[in-house]
Give the backbone structure.
Amino acid sequence: MSYSITELAKLTGVSTRTLRFYDKTGLLIARRNPKNNYRYYDKAEVDQLQKIMFLRLFDLPLAQIKKIMQSSTEIQYQALKQQRQKIIAEKNRLTTLIDNLDQTLTSMKGKTTMNMSDQEKFVAFKTQKIMIMKKCMVKKFVLNMIMILLMRVSKKSVLCPKKNLII
């Protein structure tokens, strides 16, 4: 099915302004109607937008997303698989927070006494800090993956600016 830019915006919750920006930057190139030059999106673009949205969930920069989307299917698969792992970790963290809050609320109503240790009361909050650190590590991993890909494509050495290494 084909979608106009407005229809795709309503379907996905992404603004038309963002879709135009993605088109302008080459991240998600819209097809053009030859009669009126309007943007429209087919199945391939809808599928690509879904991948972009998964990669944006944890604030991966658009430049990195563009490089991933221009890479092989295997690299896209690995990047999305990493996102899945992050989503599962976030789901577990939220479940722990909800359980912790439920116990706190029950205890406040006097229905039970708090059965959590002091460490258990704060474990979900610490997990959030760990997730932030992991997020930084994933960004570094993606950058390294892109550099290796560039090296393979160009068959030349690539300078790693942060480490002053030649790969």
About this structure: Confidence is low (pLDDT under 50) at residues 163-167.
